[in-house]
Every structure is written in C-alpha cells, then in structure tokens.
Amino acid sequence: MSNNLLVGQSGGPTAVINGSLYGVVSEGLSNPAIGKVIGMVNGIEGFLAGRTMEMAPLAENGELERIRTTPGSFLGSCRYKLPEDLSDPVYPELFKKFEEFEIGYFFYIGGNDSMDTVSKLSRYAASVGNKIRIIGVPKTIDNDLVETDHTPGFGSAAKYVASTVREIAIDASVYDNKQSVTIVEIMGRHAGWLTAASVLARKFEGDNPVLIYLPEVAFDTDAFIEKVKEKLQTTSNLVVCISEGINDGNSTFVCELASDVGVDNFGHKMLTGSGKYLENLVKEKLGVKVRSVELNVCQRCSSSCLSATDLNEAVESGRFAVKAAIDGETGKMITFIRKSSEPYELEFGTADVNIICNMEKPVPQKWITENGSDIGGEFIAYARPLVQGNVEVPMKDGLPYFAYRR
Predict the structure, then answer these.
(1) CB-CB contact of 275 with 209 (8 Å)
(2) What's the pTM value of the predicted model, to 2 decimals?
(3) Integer Cα distance of 47 and 88 in angstroms
(4) 368-369 and 374-375 as β-strands: parallel, antiparallel, unpaired?
(5) d(Cα 114, Cα 24) in Å, to the nearest integer?
C-alpha cells in the first residue's frame, strides 16, 4: 500500500483550521507509517490542476509552528463540488493522480460540503477496490455538523461575536438620553449557533443584547417591531442580534423581502442584507435612531480572539485523524464527544461521513426562549467552555506574525 499523506482545506476559513492542518502534518511527519506529507494547494480543485507542496520543509524552517496560530487557510481553499454521478471521469482522474503521488492517506479539512467530498471519494474508492484511507477533519464556525458535539472554529468565532457585541453595546450606551436601536447581523444561514453566542456578551440580567433571533424560529416582522417597541421602554439603547438567515418559516429569508438573492456553486442562497432591511423597517415604523452592523468575514477567523480550547482541540483532532487512518479507518469524520461540561472533558471518535454530509444540526428549540427572541441558560452552559483560554500569537514589529504560503 502507498504510504504518502495528502491533506487539503476547503470551504470558508476559520481561526483554527490551520491548527487542524498543523495536527495532521505534525503527526504525519513524526509517524513512521507515513512517507511524504503533501499539501493540496486550493483543495481538490487545486490538486486537479497540479498544485501541491511538500510540507516537511515547513517543519525544518520553523514555519509549521507559526501555521498553528495563523488564521485562514494556509494551503488555500476552494468550493469545488464533485459530481453526484460516481461514473463521472473526474473520479478516475483523481485516483490516477493519487497513484502518481503514491497516496495512501487522504485528509480533507472542512465543513458540510467538504464532508460531501469525503463521502464521494470514499464511496468511489470502495467501488473500485482502492485501499486509500479517506478521513474528514471537521471545520466550521457554523457549528452545524451532525454527529459531533461541536466543531473546530466555532469556539473562537463565538468568542469574537460575544466580545464584539459587548463592545457594540458599550458604544451604544454612551448616549442613553435618546432611544436607539443597533441591529447586529451575524453569519448563519440555517443554523443560529454563532448568533446564539452573542448571549455571552451579557454582564447581567437584562443587559444587551436584549433580543436575539435565530433562523430556527419563524421570524415575524410585525411581532419584531412590537418587541422592539416594548423593550425600548426599559432599555433606551437597544442592541438586537440576528442571524443572516432569519426567515418567515416558509423558506423566504428576511433579506429576500428587499431584493433578489443569488446562489453559490452548491445551490446555497447567498444571504446579505437582513440587518439593513430591519434597520429601514424600524426607522419607518418607530422613527427612532437605528443602525445595522454586519460582522461579515471579521467574525470568521480573527486571531485576536483565538480560544485556547478551540485551538487545542483543532490540533488534537488533526492528530487523531492520522492515527485513526493508520488504524484502518476510512470514510469517516472525526467527532467531538463531550464527557462533561463542568469540569469540561472531551474525547475524540469517528462517525460514518455518509450520515453527516448534507445534513445540518440546528440549535435545539428548547434552548431558544421568549417566543423565539432570546437564548436560554442551557446554551450558555454548552458554549462557555468552548471560548475559554487565550493564545499567545507570535509577534513581529508589534503585529501578529503569521505564516504565508509563498
């Protein structure tokens, strides 16, 4: 059996996706069962185009250690969708390349769509009797992968959201003699995990953000206006957090009320503008000072808010993936199994990637309170351990010193 290792990254970046890469690469380089460790530049799409790099020199020149705390995707990413039909010629083309590089172990670090790639490749390998071992390493700030307690990237992004919303609330509070509304739009198409994390910004009961809306509950614009009007009576500088994917419960997103929405290569609607739509609605209906803030990509991979828990788990999940593959696992995704929240204890496992890909894990309805406008204590107990600990990022000239692919 060929024993070289191939690793790639796919989908949107996070603050710790390179931590998972570091884990895979460092374990691969140190494990005698592995030959060369090769990185795909820009994922499957880049590999098909012949873009690869050997990873051993990065350990020799010290760059690998910097990769561990570098946000974004060091190897570059793609959003390439493999065909549903396993008889498509791209599959033999890929596996011919695997043979040319003597690949025995394939690791793909990514979210839902990346697990779809892992599923298709592992199923094709089984259909042709190829012994390559294919493992998915989870990554997504959306925290919406099934069969796992949480995903690397969520803890750091949640920490960023909570920290930023707290700063926004303080900014809004300096002028409390006039009513105002600040609407913060946070990533989350169908699952509101990241928006729910804004509840961690509160310092006391009744503190901002007073209202939190997730896509798991149907959003009614009239009820929203009434709720804002009610809360302004007790909180003059109101902060409201919403998921970008809030919808009416019948597949119409709030942002679609204002304009047409395009789709990406995977058929997902590209959402933007829910906050701006509600800003204009509040201004029209209530006549108060209102602004909307879209956190956008800043929440995705901020190194300033790295969670030590998140980073350590990302690294260890990468290491565990290599060990699992060497032990014979294939067609699996690494899973996070919470043993306890207090004290926080975690272990790793594997699950069949075919029951994971193209599925989404919503925030449990019982964690959403106040008729869909707030988040309960069960979520806080779930999320708080994931944002703990600070990470010392290497500095140079007073700025973070990151790893860059050259």
Answers:
(1) no
(2) 0.94
(3) 17
(4) antiparallel
(5) 16
